[in-house]
Amino acid sequence: MINVEDGKWAYLAGILDGEGSIDLYKNRRRNKPDVEVCVWNTSRELMDWLEANFQGYVRKRTPASVKGKKPMYGWRVRRRQKVEQILQGVAPYLIIKKENAKKVLAYLPSMKSRKESPAREKY
Fold it and tell me: Using CA atoms, how far apart are residues 105 and 85, in angstroms rounded to an integer?
């Protein structure tokens, strides 16, 4: 369970509104719908803070052969339970992505976990 103070939820909401995304997409490998909350930024310090406070994981993307470009870091949360906790925590503070968060939160209960769904079930 993610346990953080209200101020951190508000800060995360601002980051998501400006630099992040809340996605509902089709996972091609499993052929099923999936969810993700992510933020891409050049600040490794920000990514480490997100990971420390809200779990998830950080990936680094280095620009291919472009001089002077900073590496990009992506913080991602893909576990449905964690995505739900994050969206519930930031929902009161979101402005730009509030409707998207509401849609994903409404859809989450209809998604079956890997344990509940047979491997070859079609959607």
Answer: 10
